[in-house]
Amino acid sequence: MATTKTDPKLALTANGAKKNKVYEGLTREQIIQAYRFMYTSRRIDDREILLKRQQKIYFQMSGAGHEAIGVAAGLALKPGYDWFYPYYRDRALCLALGVKPYDMFLQGVGAANDPSSGGRQMPSHWSYPELHIVTQSSPTGSQILQAVGCAEGGRYFARHPKAAVVPEPKFADYRQFKNVSFQGDEISYVSLGDGTSSEGEFWEAMNAAALGKLPVIFCVEDNGYAISVPVEVQTAGGNISRLVSGFPDFHFEEVDGTDPIASYAAFERAVRHCRAGRGPGFIHAHVTRPYSHSLSDDERLYRADAERERDAARDPVTRTQMFLLREGILDEKGINQLEKEVEAELQAAVDLALEALPPAPESITKYVYSPDIDPASSAFDTQPVAPEVPADGKKIPAKTMADLITATLRDEMKRDERIVIFGEDVGDCSREEYLKRKLVKGKGGVFKLTFGLQNEFGSDRVFNSPLAEAAIVGRATGMATRGLKPVVEIQFFDYIWPAMMQIRDELSVIRWRSNNGFSCPVVIRVAIGGYLTGGAIYHSQCGESVFTHIPGLRVVFPSNAQDAAGLLRTAIRCDDPVLFLEHKRLYREAFGRAPYPGPDYMIPFGKAKIVHPGEDLTVITYGAVVPRALQAAQKIEREQGVKVELIDLRCLNPFDWDTIATSVRKTNRVLVAYEDTLSWGYGAEISARIADQLFDSLDAPVRRVAAKDVFVAYQPILEDAILPQPNDLYLAMKDLAQY
Ligand SMILES: Cc1ncc(C[n+]2csc(CCOP(=O)(O)OP(=O)(O)O)c2C)c(N)n1
Ligand SMILES: [Mg+2]
Asked: Which residues line ligand 1 (CB under 6 A)?
């Protein structure tokens, strides 16, 4: 373990002539302060390593070698004004922004009052809302797109300041619980390691930042290794600066990141570029990694001694100490004094942290969802407005699910200026002059559900994104963290997978992992499902159970127009992230059309609908299986007199256990039907719960009807054989009724 020592031979006394000298704009006092942060950072690492060996903390991740670049960033940027998406090596940055060593030790011991996460996250996973240090996670690089979205959020509020005002609504929505702050020239800082620049999300973020000329500073802290993989195996040509140099409107810096003054100067130039609105900044800092990757790694297994010695000669802490002595900024006595003060502070902080109480086990479910708004509550239970009868006495026109989703989006956008809509092809036309000159009508989504919205609300609020699903969700997450309400679209469920990391490890978990420090209530609309005769493998998939398996994410799946309108409004106004699944086959189906239920119509989450009452058999389903099950239920009643109670769940997380239990207790027979593949599907969970909790009420086994365990094929004969059909449902109902 390399510890930091003062070399007494180098000690000089203060040089009077240099007293007023500034170094790239930094005064001597500021440089002493910078050194104090660097030294503190290194010594916290050393203390944590000791505590880990004594089994008093459970993990350690060091920032050693990265202190100078971190402190430089901290001095050039403003806490509580700019926004920070750091990574685990940014201890010195956090100290420079105002985080206290005590807070860091609290995370190490997993204390209840750890301000970053309340004992939920490993140490070095920073989260300090007041300083604008946004909760970070462990997947390398998943913070980068969010930093871009954060910058977009700041710009949006600067251009639409009225959107930040919390109205006095008749109905309390998520806005009441989001403090929006924006400056107009704030910067989003994001850092990553050299290895992490291989992640696709890094490139999506660079592209998005350049396209938007956004004030984001990307800082690549290049220590030459990603665990054991050296940079020349990681980055083509061995230098990330060369690879990114073609991105337009960036200010680029490649700097010795072990030199705090050169690093500060690089940051200052990038900051000026960003604050002036000229585009993003990119700082490539060459740093060192004097300790192994983590305590679980031993770098001697893959790094030769000579190489490690070369690194040690560039150690930023030792180097800065030598600089202080050489410049006469501090003499040996001064250095000793500073180090003693730091040691005393750390000792006190460790002593205190070791006494901190752990969190209570009962607290584990706190902040999975918003503690402020419950979308399953009666506040979201409003009545549809009766439509006006046409003056000519004609029938009230019934609208499709597609129509009512568009109408709901339009009314919500009128009501709430924080809503922005983006995704692939969702805009009417990116070349605005065509719209202005009325040369084109506009597209508005491949299914046309957002048609006309860009025209009506402007290109700031409805716009096309690059073809990059992780970027859609990651940027939306950053925007929502700032207080916007992004309602984004994933064009086909089959293509949601690039966004999976953002959905599973970020969007859904941000509130919980930050102990309610941050939240990001995004709505993701997704076109899902088959029965398309020709949709084939990549336009017909279901897979909702993959998402209902994620704590923190609401999942909704309406089967008809009115439910889609009511549930989408609840999704938009609530304070949780929502996956809103829209079945493509139902968009324009004759089944389930309805008049528009009005601009305040809402349905609470987790409330099923009994589509067809009955006493003999319960069928539990949702989505496009609802009309198919209804057809089968009507047939079996006609032919056999069996009365089926058909339940449309409408919302999959939360789901309506009470309605299921009441029905099964009455009918004693139950069929669970779903369009997804049978095994490990959504119905498996429902069946298991029924078997567990309603065993005494059952007169027959719990049966399932679902897709075969294969992909959906193109040829309609095959598609019919794969997906559950009305006749499959009919036969299963008959079998169960006779059991
Ligand atoms: C997506 C993902 N893949 C793998 C890992 C495991 N992992 C943690 S750190 C790391 C190396 C990161 O290297 P680099 O980006 O250069 O940062 P450094 O640790 O060198 O500062 C790896 C592979 C992870 N956390 N996330
Ligand atoms: Mg590295």
From this structure: 89, 138-140, 192-196, 221, 223, 225-227, 293
